[in-house]
Input
Amino acid sequence: MLKLYDRKIPPKIILKTTGNACNINCKYCFELKKNVSNSIISPETLEKLIHKISIPFPIIFHGGETFLINKNKFRELLSIVKRNYPHKITSVKIQSNGTLLDSEWCEILFNEYKDLGIDIALSLDGTKEMNSLRVDQK
Output
């Protein structure tokens, strides 16, 4: 019998931080084809989610493009995460295309919130042919 859920195994929470909003328009991307709002997750929604899950779990900020969120709004979200780390949230990861990651973001993620041990995964296409499909909105 296939077991799809076990209360003892924490779910991995992937937050579509900015819905499917993205600053680039890769020709192979499936995100824009989804009928998903581009609205930003609210701190209240994150807080409710955290308190509804009864066991500690990892959280992944995702998009579209995660760094399209206003930096102060993201600080609000990270402050909620920090209040719940590590007793409720076990790890913090961010998925990004990397095009908006700048020194100010690095200051926020790796100095202001260094206690969270944030990991960033960058989407890289690799080959010249694949990179030619990774185009910006302009």
